[in-house]
Amino acid sequence: MKDVFITRFMLLKKNKISLIIWLLAPIAVTIAFLATANTVEDDFTVPVGLVLEEETNSALELYEEMKESPLVTVSLLSEHDAIRQVEQHELDSVFIVKQGYEQAIESGDRRNILESYYSDRSFAYNSVKEMIVSIIQQETGRVKAANTVMALEKELSGSQKWSKTEIITKSNQIQAEEDLLNNEFRYLGDKFSSSNSGIEWNPWMIWAFAAMLFTLFLFDWVIKERNAIVGIRFYFAKIKFSNYMLYSLSFYILLLFIIDLLTAAAFYLLYQNSINLITLLSYRITICLFSFLLVCLIRKTYVSYVLAIALTLTLVVLSGALLPFGGIGVTKEWLNLLNPLSRFLSGEWTMEWLGLCLTGVLIWYVWEEKKYA
Amino acid sequence: MLSIESISKSFKRKKIINDLSFTAEAGEIVGLVGENGAGKSTLLNILATTMKPTAGDIYLNESNYRKDIKTIRKHIGFVPQDIAIWDQLTVQENMVFFEKLSWKNRSKQQLQEICMDMSLDRWHDPVKNLSGGMKRKLNLAISLIHDPTVLLLDEPTVGIDLKSRKEIGSYLRKQATENGKIIIYTSHDMDEIKELCDRVITIGEDPFYTELLKKAGKKVLSF
Ligand SMILES: Nc1ncnc2c1ncn2[C@@H]1O[C@H](COP(=O)(O)OP(=O)(O)OP(=O)(O)O)[C@@H](O)[C@H]1O
Ligand SMILES: [Mg+2]
Description:
Chain A: Pfam families: ABC2_membrane_3. Chain A is mainly α. Chain A has 15 helices and four strands. Chain A folds into two domains: 209 residues, no CATH class; 137 residues, D-Maltodextrin-Binding Protein, domain 2, CATH 3.40.190. Helices cover 68% and strands 6% of the residues of chain A. Magnesium ion binds next to helix 1 of chain B.
C-alpha cells in the first residue's frame, strides 16, 4: 500500500498543475456561480424610489410590502432627491404617498392617493405600478372586510367586541400562516426552488454537478495507465495491476475527500451551510467508483471528456436545475431514484448507487484477475 | 534450466509457432533469430508468461508454467520490444518507481549502478529528453532491478551505439557466466548474435539465417 502511494505520488507530481486545477475546480465553480447568480439577481431588481408624505401605519405597511418583493429595491427618499434620481435614470420610477393616504384607505377611497414620476427609460414602471396597486387593493380589501365584519357583528349581536385593528391583524395573521404552509409544501415537493426571496441556490447542488464533472476529468489517469506500455511490467511486480489500480483508486478517493472536507468548511464559513459528512463521503465514493468504472470502458481520453460533459449536462437537466422553478416537471419518484444527485441533495446516503458501483468494481476486479492469471 | 516442451501458438487460425522444443541451461546465452513476423516476440512473450501457448509445456527448473506462474514471474526479467518506461519521469524516478513495485529492495546507489552497467549516466534527465538509444538502455535497466534468473530480451540493443552495445554485451556475458543466469536474446544484428550467443534458435520457413550462422560455426537449432 505504502509503495503504491509513493509511486502514485511520483506520477501525480508530474501533473501538479492539472491536478490542482481539477481538485479545486468544483469549489471554485460553485463559489463563482453563486457570486454571479447573486449579482445577476441583484441586477434584475428594479430600483424604485418611495416618498412618504405621511408616516402612518398604512404608508409604512406599503413600504414594507414593497421591500418584500424580490423584483424591486425600494429606497425611501425626499421628493426632491427622488425626482432628481429619476431624471438621472438612477431610479426606474418614483411613487409618492400623498398626505391623507391612510384616511383614504380607511374610507375605501382610492383616488389621488399616489403620485408617480417616471422617465422615458423607465422600463419597469408599469409592472411596478401594477404591483403597488395590488398591494393597496389588498389593503383596502382588508379594511373593507373589517368594516363588513363589524357591521355584521353589530347587526347580529348588537354589540361591538372586535375593533377594526384586531380584525385586520387577524386577517394578516391568517395570511402569514397560510404563506408558511404554502412555502413548506413547495419546499417538500421541489427541492430546487424556494419561496420568498427569489432563488436560493444550494451551494452543494452546484458543487455536486461540478464534482461529478471534474472527477471524471481527473480520472483520465485510468485510461492513460491502462493504455500505457509499462503495464506489461506489472506481470513481474509484487503488486498486481488490478491491485495497483484499486490502491490508486483509494488514494484518489482519500485525496478528493480531504478536499471535500475543506470544501465543507469553506461552504460553512461562506454560506453557513452545513452538510452531513457521511452523506458527503458516500457521494464522493460513489462518484469516484462510478468514474473509475466508466473510464475503464473507454480507450481514448477525449471520449471520456466528452462523455463527462454530456453526462453532467444530462444530470443537470434531470435534476431540473436549469429551470430553477420546478424543472421540466419530471420530478417523478423513479427519476429521483435514478438520479444519484437527488439523494445526495436530500441529505441521504447514495445507497443504491454505492452498492451498484461496488458490485461493478468487484466484477471488474475478477475480470482483470483472469486477464493476468 | 528452462525447458520448452513442444509448444505451439496460433492466432485465430494462423499458426505462428509449431511444436518448438529446446532447453536453456544456467550460464547460457541463447540467440533467437528469424525474419520479421517469424514469431520471436511471440515466443519470448510466452516464455515471459505474458502470453499463453496454445499447446505444450514449459518448466523453469521444477516449476511448471501452468501451475506455479507466481513463482516463475519473480524470476523473470523481460525486456519488451516496445519500450516500457514512464516518459514523464526522470531516469532516477523510473528506476525508483519500479523498484518500489519489485520483489527486491534496492538502494538508490544500487539502482544507479545498474544504469551505469548499461552505460546510462543521465540519472536526473526526464526520459522524454533522452535519445532513442538511451531509452532502450533504461528499458533494459528496469528489467534487471529484481535481479532475475531468466533474462528474456526482445531486441534490447536496437539503436544503441556500438560502444554501449559492446559494454552491454560484456555485462550480459558476465551475468551468464558468473551469476548463472539464463539469457534468451533476439536481435537482427548477426554480428552481435555471433559474438554473444552460445547457441542460436532460428524460427521461420526461410533457411537463410540457419545457413548463415552455421557457416559462421554456430550451433543452430531451427524450427
Ligand atoms: N496479438 C496478436 N494477434 C494476432 N496476430 C499476432 C498477434 N501478435 C503477433 N501476431 C502475429 O504473429 C506473427 C509473429 O509476430 P512476432 O511479433 O512474434 O514477430 P517477430 O518475429 O517478433 O517479428 P519482428 O522481427 O518484426 O519483431 C506476426 O505475423 C504477427 O502479425
Ligand atoms: Mg519482435
